[in-house]
Amino acid sequence: MNVQSPTVAPKSPIAAKDRILHTAHTLFYRDGIRATGIDLIIKQAGVTKVTFYRHYSSKDALILAILHYRHQRWMAWFSQALGRYSAELPLPAALASTLLEWFTGEDFRGCAFINSTLEYAVPLPEVRELSVTHKRDMAKAVEGYLAESDGMSDQAECVALLIDGAIVKAQMENQAQPAVRFMQHMLEILIRQWSTKAGADNE
Predict the structure, then answer these.
(1) Number of Cβ atoms within 10 Å of the Cβ of 176
(2) In whole angstroms, what is the distance from residue 202 CA to residue 43 CA?
């Protein structure tokens, strides 16, 4: 998966505002929010300081813009990839394949929303709010692949928790395969349990 932009954004024909956004998106995700200063973003985006502040009044405003941008791009990729794999595989295997595609990318640095929340939710509470929305939307995307039941919403939250666990494990250990394998195994167990319970409830 490629939800990243080039480290040095092209100066043309992309508008200055988008160059700033794409450059900061890459640097924040790769190096962290606190480690990335405005001056570096300005330099690599190829804009002046006046131009930067014309489009983004502060670093905080830029951070929130990037999280909105990241959410839209990541969710579009996730929905497309999960749908593609689900056409031929059951949900556990499809989800494992989806995550493996992401985890094995050269630019993988974990979840931008988990990272941002840990790093910047205290000085900028809106980061936490956007991250919660992101995770809720991720769970909602998964819910569409679950067997219909009264507990679908809770089941989707369980799957989302497994996804987050796999993301953190892959990031910490720098290994994609074990993380997706364990996630797939746990999801297969859960789905069997949910199926058994639904059958018992219908008797």
Answers:
(1) 20
(2) 63
Per DSSP, the residues of 158-180 read HHHHHHHHHHHHHHHHT-HHHHH
Q: How many CB atoms lie within 10 A of CB 51?
A: 16
Q: How many CB atoms lie within 10 A of CB 195?
A: 12
Distances (CA, A) of 77 to 95, 101, 138, 145: 13, 11, 11, 16
Give the phi and the psi of residue 188 in degrees, each rounded to 5. -60, -40
C-beta separation of 5 from 24 below 8 A: no
Measured CA to CA, the distance from residue 34 to residue 143 in angstroms comes to 35
pTM for the structure as a whole: 0.90
Q: Long-range contacts made by residues 28-33, C-beta under 8 angstroms, separation at least 24? A: 28/63, 28/66, 28/112, 28/116, 29/4, 29/70, 29/107, 29/109, 29/112, 29/115, 30/4, 30/107, 30/109, 32/115, 32/119, 33/63, 33/116, 33/119, 33/120
Q: How many whole angstroms separate alpha carbon 156 and alpha carbon 138?
A: 9
- As given in the structure block, the two tokens for residue 79 are 């929905």
- Alpha-carbon gap, residue 161 to 164, rounded angstroms: 5
The 10s digit of each residue's pLDDT in 39-94 is 999 999 999 999 999 999 999 999 999 999 999 999 999 999 999 999 999 999 99
- Determine the Cα angle at 76 with ends 146 and 119, to 5°: 95
